[in-house]
Design brief:
This protein is 10% helix and 37% strand. By secondary structure, the chain is mainly β. Strands 1-11-10-4-3-2 form a 6-stranded antiparallel β-sheet. The chain has a 5-stranded antiparallel β-sheet with strand order 5-6-7-8-9, with no helix packed on it. Keywords: 2Fe-2S, Iron, Iron-sulfur, Metal-binding. It comes from Felis catus.
């Protein structure tokens, strides 16, 4: 049984947004419908499997963000974390070890202080991009996620691919 709105979402799983069939070689980079806009706006987050990769989608302050569901540090469940602002940037805080990851870029943030300066105040610094970020688009009330095409390795890839992947492929 389909929920209202799912029929349009399901029909796009094997087709591109323009209605043409997907080339199997390009399938991993094609947008996948993961749900309805109304649903994510109510829940503020949702999880999905996109081309055999687990992702979490957040709706925060009018913007959509998607990233690998497992924290880059130790595989913690980011979909269970809280969103907080650090240095003016919204971040998901991993519930396991409190690592802070920016929603927009996937950067890991930490506080640093100069130990030789007793009057120094802690500053927020970036560890660089640690969590793979994916593209979210909205079309006709449907939410689509397109996996990142960035060629660099992200630390979160460790938990999203290979032996440590939570969802194992049926191939």
């Amino acid at each position: 049984m389909l929920l209202p709105g799912e029929e349009s979402c399901l029909s796009t799983l094997s087709m591109d947004l323009d209605g043409s069939e997907q080339d199997p070689e390009v399938k991993e980079y094609s947008p996948v419908c993961v749900g309805r806009e109304d649903d994510i706006k109510k829940s503020k987050r949702m999880t999905a499997v996109v081309h055999d990769r687990e992702v979490v989608i957040f709706y925060h302050k009018g913007e959509y963000h998607a990233m690998d569901i497992r924290c880059y540090h130790s595989g913690g469940p980011l979909h269970l974390g809280e969103i907080e602002e650090f240095d003016g940037r919204p971040c998901i805080v991993c519930p396991w070890h409190k690592y802070k990851i920016t929603l927009a870029t996937g950067e890991g943030l930490y506080q640093s202080i100069n130990p030789r300066d007793p009057s120094a105040k802690p500053e927020w610094c970036s560890k660089g991009v640690k969590q793979r970020i994916h593209t979210v688009t909205v079309d006709n009330g449907n939410i689509y996620v397109t996996l990142s095409k960035e060629p660099f390795k992200c630390d979160s890839d460790f938990y999203a691919t290979g032996d440590f992947k939570v969802i194992q492929s049926s191939f």
